Request: fold
Amino acid sequence: MKTNKKLNLYIFAGISVFLGVRALSVWPQYSSDLELPTQPISEHQSIGGSIADTKREKNTSGESPINQTVAKKTTPRQRAPKQVAIADTIAKEFEYRALLTSNDPLTSTSWALDAVNASSGWNTSTGNGVVVAVIDSGFGLNHEDLQSQWYQNTGETGTTSSGDTCWSGSAQNKANNNCDDDGNGYVDDWQGWSFIHTDNNPQAGRSNPIGAGVSHGTEVSGIVGAAGNNGKGIATISWNNEIMPLQVLSDSGIGYTSDVVGAIYYAVDNGASVINMSLGGDSVDPAMQAALAYAYNNNVVVVAAAGNCGTGTEYGCDPANPGAMSYPAIDPTVISVGASTNGNERASFSSYGANLDVVAPGSGNIRSTVWTESNGTNAYVTNLYGTSFASPFVASLAGLIKSIRPNTSVNDVRALIDASAQKIGAMGSNWYTNQYGHGLIDVSTALTVANTLQTTPPSQLPTLYQTANHKTEHRYSSNTSLTSGCELAEQTYCTIYAVDSSSSLIRYLPYELTDTNFAASWDYKGSLFPAGGWRLYAQSGEKESSSGHWMIQK
Reply:
């Protein structure tokens, strides 16, 4: 019997309808039209032709040309005169390639991935094994689209040898030798941990295979990191995240502070770069607050569902407080996520408020992996809704960003997600609204900025130009027209980052490239900042301007 204070943690899911799908039972339309080579085709290589004549790159700058010899396309037939004439006008050859797509049958018609520009992002990265901890209910460990994706603790795999902590005189399998081989305080934790059963088996359905929350962890995991391009089921934003399964909710969907806090510390201490928490409680929990600070201070990104109290009439919500967001989503160290519909509107049930970061697909035909008592290996859900399923899209994106910038800070990842978000129609001309946060996530833009900052990092701290205007100086009202600027090397991405001194609320202006005058600028209204005292900085990746600019509402 647990003696912990109950936190009233709930999973933020709606009704789900599952559909069993055999591997390769449905093929996407493009499967017969495009076959991608296993190795990239070099410039202008023609199928059935040859790489033959070369052409010197025209150099009009007076500088030494780069990649002077460029392969030109030839075929067994002589090239057409018009083609030659056009080719001779080209000063520099740029490479083009077929856009990367997934062969997973349930992904070909995914409005959710289309809405967040996932396929364009895949040309930058599909992931490289970033560990994302999913703190949730149990998991379908044998599901075909997840089986290859589970994190494995190398300290608890393989066999013991002489000199090991757990050497008993004969070689034993570390995964089941009933000994803490790596000394992390958990025995035989070779593949995650069940804080519910206090053992190394976070499998769904062990206590109540028909419980209300029994499949929640499996559904969330599929959106975080189902295996991409494997010809089975679905793909998600990142094809190659490594999922650390940490069970803190029972099959009925209920959990307690001690288990959730334990899982956060476990994730941080055992190599997770990102944590997804599609769960929440009704009030600030000091113990969890400390654990979240521990994650933040160790550069682990925490993403959480905003909650499902958009109207206040939903189950378990307060009608007198519509939109109320849950904890930990309201914690200032957490990226909080609301749910959007296939019409790019806020889902009516999605909680909202001044702490909201972004929205992501979470209503209507959201597809993922599912576990049931009768099918734990190859069933797929086709109609999920809830902020529980919006949050893992953002966690998946955070994993992709970490695949490009592995050692970067939480602040940088948050800026890349918030400051690249799409300003969808209902936001009007606003850079931020309580209903939508900074907007709908944009995978392609976030990865483009991340990749540019990684390959060409800013060489100096950005400089913040004057905020406000000559009349307002450091004071503003909601209708005040404000201007901010960033000075940095030409063609460098920069954003403006603002934090409220009392509430720790955070706002970003969109990432922009500096121009030939080494400047980027933004015009906006004072309504971007709720009442309070805000300090603004110019930010480029992990670099921030050395001093901030104070803004206080009149």
In short: The chain has three domains: 10-29+104-151+191-452, 44-58+65-94, 458-553.
